[in-house]
Amino acid sequence: MGLRGDLGELPLPDLVQMTSVGGKTGRLVLYDEEGAVAGVLMFRGGRLVAAQSGELTAERAFYALLGLRTGSFDFDPAAQLDEADVDLSTESLLMEGMRRLDETYRMRRRLPAPAVVRYVGGDTEDALEARVLGYLGPGARTVGDVVEGLLVGGDADEYDALSALEHLAAGGTVRVGLPGEAGETDPEAGQPPQPELER
Questions:
Q1: Contacting residues for 147 by C-beta, under 8 A, at least 6 apart
Q2: Global pTM?
Q3: What is the dihedral of CA 172, 108, 149, 179, to 10 degrees?
Q4: For the residues 127-145, what does the mean pLDDT come to?
């Protein structure tokens, strides 16, 4: 027998813990507050064997879905499971996921979505940071645009993108400022569009 409910009443971390402790097997479909599918988690014997959220898969999809606070879920123990992508302990995933969520919220306060990112100078050896710099080009973009651009391809999530931006800013390679601060303007105002990331 399946289980359906509201994420406001039974949060995803609690639901995952119940699945783990009970050694459950099945597919958990998560819906956002508008009823659209936000992601799918598959469990075998209480362990996560597959996860999908947008273009994110495996652990990154799991971490992204932990941020859902509203919406609903449908757990189907009779669902046909796809081939396993991973075989991970949900306990360790939950611990790391909660740490990443806390750190993401902290970074969002330091790097809010409307903040403007400008290239100052320098280079990086890190592949993800290099993608940030390539995405910025010679112009400027908002933090929200950079994060969204890095999500393309599914090999980075919000935590990864904000961490890369924070490291580049700390090293002086980019400057981050809010529109309205001295010398900062909205990058969308009166400037030609920046090239999109290669897909």
A1: 113, 158, 161, 162, 165
A2: 0.77
A3: -70
A4: 90
